[in-house]
Amino acid sequence: MLRRQEFIRRTFTPGNGKPSYFRVSPSAFARCLLGDAPRHRIQLEAGALRRVFQERESFHRRGETVEEMTYSSAVVPILGSERVLGAVYADDLKSMSPIREPDLHLLAALGKVAGAAIEGVRRAQRLQEEKENLRRLVAEETEIVGESAAMQDVMDLIGSAAQADGPVLVRGEGGAGREIVARAIHLNSRRAGGPWVTLHCAAVPPEGVAIELFGHEKDVFPGADVRKKGRLELAHGGTLLLDAVGEMDAGCQEEVARFLETGTFRRAGGTEDLRADVRIIAGTTRDLSDARSRGTFRDDLLSRLGAVEIVLPPLRERREDVFPLVRHFLDQFGERMGRRMEGLTPEAETLLQGYEWPGNVRELRNVVERAMLSTTGTELRPEDFPSLLAARAGGRETARTLEEVEREHVARVLRLAGGNAAEAARLLGLSRAQLLETMERLNLPG
Asked: Going by C-beta distance under 8 Å and a sequence separation of 6 or more, which residues neighbour residue 221?
């Protein structure tokens, strides 16, 4: 209990030399507290207290000033977890008796509740500010564009994953942006200044993935004239993206699981355990839990990789992001070509909005780039998107199976690419190996 008389008696004395007693509002009194006062203790700065009282007017009651009365007051701290946040002030102008003990307990409880509430509000505000800052950084440092709720959730997950340092699994269809998301995590993490290394497991023969990943010693196989460092060793101090991780064979999966467990690995043909400080981000187009159920993907590896999983929604499920992406690509390509594009005509907007985008963001990017190369105007029209017009015309025919639609689309893209499988794979957002597998499944000529 802090009695006002204990603090201000004879502290401030008017010109007549008599002690004076003034009423001070709680906010004014709280301003007298030192900001770094130790917990459970209120310290008052005499000079500040004197100035506060000098600034207050005398309290009048029934024509008499407070200088002629004596009364009790109390102050209890508003306690935070580490410091005093303020004070609760109360006084009694009606009674000459001291403030009672139950009143003090009530005030103390009020101070504790107020402290918890203030810190809760501040903590929520701080977390929201951090979330907004992370979203801004992700958007600024990468090509991730999206205003939909689904993509805002993805950005939040990227921010959270960037603050940690464990493995991350990024799952999404071809062209949905797995590598961009993985790079965003890297750029916003403590490893941003370290190496960024990628390995697309489907682009390497299954028996060669382990050698690409872990390296090899000299003369371990014909043609190995020198020792070669693997991608894992090259990524020391940084981040390694293992895309299409589901394509690794059982032996390579075992070695990756061992590295995640121990932080050590061996080059092919080596006998020495080596260490690498590397964060692994894995990418996949499919749900690996199905592969685990079939026994084609190790349970222990999935458990370690999938502790944090980011699932990217396909573009057809977030159509509100189509036009922000188009605007982004128009600005990007316009700067490169030295042109300024106004946008799309209403008819072109309808065309793009109605397309299913099986190749996702990558396909949209390629379509916009081709359209800009084919037009001389400042707006893109439907005729600037011949592949989309052909797809829409095909959709007016009788109902067909999904396999038939997929076969026609892949065949059309192959024709656009002049039969070049690598270019067709790029347009479809697939690896060359994935395209060849798809062509075989759809009975398309190679």
From this structure: 268, 269
Nearest to 38 by CA among 84, 77, 88, 80: 84
Q: Are 355 and 388 in contact (CB under 8 A)?
A: yes
In whole angstroms, give the CA distance from residue 395 to residue 36. Answer: 71
16: burial class by Cβ within 10 Å (0-12, 13-18, 19+)?
exposed
User: What confidence score (pLDDT) does residue 74 get?
Assistant: 67
pTM: 0.60
The answer to the question of residue 64 being in a domain is yes
Cβ neighbours of residue 329 closer than 8 Å, sequence gap 6 or more: 364, 365, 368, 369
Share of the chain above pLDDT 90, in %: 41
User: How many residues are present in the chain?
Assistant: 446
- Rounded Cα–Cα distance for residues 156 and 308 (Å): 13
SS3 389: helix
Higher pLDDT, 284 or 130: 284
Q: Which residue has the tokens 């440092």?
A: 141
Q: What is the pLDDT of residues 197-218, one digit of tens each?
A: 999 998 888 889 999 999 999 9
> pLDDT per residue over 147-166, tens digit each?
899 999 998 899 899 999 99
Asked if residue 441 is part of any domain, the answer here is yes
- Region 164-180: mean pLDDT is 93
CA dihedral 13→15→17→23, nearest 10 degrees, is: -40
Residue 226, domain extent: 143-311
Position 107 confidence tier, pLDDT thresholds 50, 70, 90: confident
Q: Are 352 and 290 found together in one domain? A: no
What CATH code is carried by the domain that includes residue 352?
A: 1.10.8.60
Asked whether residue 61 carries a pLDDT value surpassing 60, the answer given is no
Q: Is 373 exposed, middle or buried (0-12, 13-18, 19+ CB in 10 A)?
A: exposed
Closest alpha carbon to 407 in 360, 436, 371, 443: 443
